[in-house]
Design a protein that fits this description.
The protein is 45% helix and 16% strand. It has one domain: Ribonuclease H-like superfamily/Ribonuclease H (Nucleotidyltransferase, domain 5, 2-Layer Sandwich), CATH 3.30.420.10. The longest helix has 24 residues. The chain is an alpha/beta fold. Helix 2 crosses helix 6 and helix 3 packs across helix 4. It is built from nine helices and five strands; from the N terminus they run H-E-E-H-E-H-H-E-E-H-H-H-H-H.
Length: 215
């Protein structure tokens, strides 16, 4: 089965319609048992040109390929940022609210780097706009199922966010080696779940999720 390659087709349609900037947006770590939920954003305009060869949705790439592509993706886009919400915040506010919180933080970082957020359309992977409920001033958001697969700006955001979060979990593995985060990146692998039973939760675990799994 051939792998679906991303294009700039949707982004080009938006530019042709008068949009100045497109912000590709994707989340990473939504279903993890430990670690933050992270939202990546990547800004392009009509002059951004050809995206890096081999760019794909991060889920379709090996860890080695993602590591190689992340700096190329960051160099291709005008601005990029990753916002996060912690495991404790996920426990307190719930995952959907924390997607919005992480997205809000990514937008703030984009603004601080000089991106014209107000003149942008956010191209959001999925069918649900979880971003605008977190914002005081709503943005124009266009959702697209499998945008991380089909749209190059969102694929870039996906790779940048995935590498950023994976590096955090690999670093955290050194302090908590029993949970295997170097390999599972905080997701609920059998070995990870068995380690939680044996050693208990760490401050990086989503305790409410562990309790849910236990029932």
């Amino acid at each position: 089965m051939a792998v679906q390659l991303p294009t700039l087709e949707l982004e080009s349609e938006l530019f042709a319609g008068g949009v100045r900037f497109v912000i590709g947006c994707d989340e990473v770590g939504r279903g993890a048992m430990a670690g933050p939920v992270s939202v990546g954003m990547a800004v392009i305009d009509a002059q951004s040109g050809t995206f890096p060869d081999g760019l794909r949705d991060s889920k379709l790439l090996s860890e080695k390929r993602r590591e190689a592509l992340a700096p190329l993706a960051a160099a291709w886009v005008l601005h990029s940022a990753v916002g996060e919400a912690s495991a404790a915040e996920v426990d307190q506010f719930g995952i959907t609210a924390c997607l919005g919180l992480a997205g809000k933080r990514a937008l703030l970082a984009l603004h601080e780097s000089g991106a014209d957020v107000a003149a942008s359309v956010v191209l959001l992977d999925g069918s649900q706009d979880w971003l605008n409920p977190a914002l005081a001033s709503p943005l124009r958001v266009q959702t697209r199922v499998k945008a991380d697969r089909d749209c190059a700006s969102v694929a870039a955001a996906s790779v940048i966010a995935k590498v950023h979060r994976d590096r955090q979990m690999i670093a955290a593995h050194a302090a908590h080696p029993a949970y295997g985060w170097e390999g599972n990146k905080g997701y609920g692998s059998p070995a990870h779940m068995a380690a939680i039973v044996e050693h208990g939760a760490t401050p990086l675990h989503r305790v409410s999720w562990i309790k849910s799994e236990a029932h």
